[in-house]
Amino acid sequence: MSERRERFDVLVVGGGPIGLACAWTALRRGLSVCVLERDKVGSGASDVAAGMLAPVGEASWGEESLLELNLASHALWPAFAEELRDASGMDPGYSRSGALHVALDRDETEELRRQHELHREHDLESEWLTASACRELEPGLAPRLAGGVFVPHEGAADPRALVASLAAAVRVGGGSIEEGVEVVRADTGPPCSVRTADGRERSAEHLVLATGCHSGQTEWLDPGERPRVRPVKGEIVTLRERGGERVCSRIVVGDRLYMVPRPDGRLLVGATVEEKGFDTTVTAGGVHELLRESYRTLPETAEMELVEIRAGLRPGTPDNAPILGWGPGAVVFATGHFRNGILLAPATADAVAALVSGEAPAIDLRPFSPGRFAGTPAVAAAPGPGGSG
Ligand code: GLY
Question: Domain tally for the chain?
Fold first, then answer.
């Protein structure tokens, strides 16, 4: 008996926040969608990430197109979170507490002034504050503070809650999610077909590649067709308040770390930036650096409970910007989100859903085209500083 071939409008390979957001947005356009995840949904970078929504904090000189995309996606977040909550009945943990970037010595002050200059050049909302004004916002800051920059509209989503609500929304919307299913072969179409390790065949008008740091190794694409994505390791520590005492109520960013408070009393302290391939070992040096810097910035963190230490792999690209747009055949790439995967989920999903619907995306995807690295080395850009977002 010949096996039944399952057909969909869109097959999404990768069940992280990007793949799930693309799936949910395509479903809302009336397309039939199946997500194939080789492990469990949300088992990649998002399981480790702090979930900062920080287009201003992440702004870097020379990355104007990325800044524009980050700002566009940031503007989509309030409606995205609300609609997701309505669709799934689950809270994606979205909040806008503001982010306070602080400098503790002269070198850090100079660097922060440079950052603030960049903000002003691009008309971004950020305000230079004296040390005492910083301490009025966050009384737990170290006494030796030199000054700071307050970015009022930045915030965070809880990546694990986001994945849970996206997965629920996909299922409620009639999409299917298959976990523990690895794509071993694909015809990139059109139309596309895939074979999974369990021997099943599925076909679709379009394939969306959203496998994060693994996308650069996609076996079912020819080597020359694979997106230029590499893993960039980040170690992150989770602390928890004791006795109801908050060490901060906003996101606090230092020169070499960021600290993201959650409503349940956890404080995520991240993150190192390391070129170590697919190694996810938590190291004494990485954890030491994060704990030393958190103590230096917010001394009361020393009294908090240490609840979790993890290392995750960001999907890095040669220019730190994502890879969005048409790959070979009818494949759409939605990968390489590096430090901004949670922030960029809504804009990525809108763009991908437009492409697979045969429409022009609302954002200009040319700066993010998969073909832009033709003829350039696979790994070019130095990683950004650990503390900038
Ligand atoms: N978005 C912060 C990080 O990648 O560490």
Answer: 2
